Amino acid sequence: MAKAKQLKVTLIRSTIGQKPDKVATVRSLGLKKISSSNILNDNDAIRGMVASVSHLVKVEEI
Q1: Which end of the chain has fewer CB atoms at under 10 Å, N or C?
Q2: pLDDT digits (tens, 9 = 90+) for 29-55
């Protein structure tokens, strides 16, 4: 059975001064503080969330 692709998402910039929907997106990705990381399954929903806050996060494929 093939292993599902995963993404490591890391918060690299602060959410201070961002619009509330961007802050909520970062929080729903499981990121709270700068340099916090979370490993998530690679699917269209996660990709869309990452794309909307791409200026705040760094993404690595695992």
Answers
A1: N
A2: 999 999 999 999 999 999 999 999 999
Strands 6-11 and 37-41, bridge-based pairing:
antiparallel
H-run or E-run covering 23: helix 20-28
Q: How high is the pLDDT of residue 3?
A: 78
The rounded radius of gyration (Å) of the Cα atoms in the chain is 12
Residue 10, CA atoms < 13 Å, CB-side half-sphere: 8
Whole-angstrom distance, CA of residue 61 vs CA of residue 52 = 18
On whether the CB atoms of residues 56 and 18 are closer than 8 A, the answer is yes
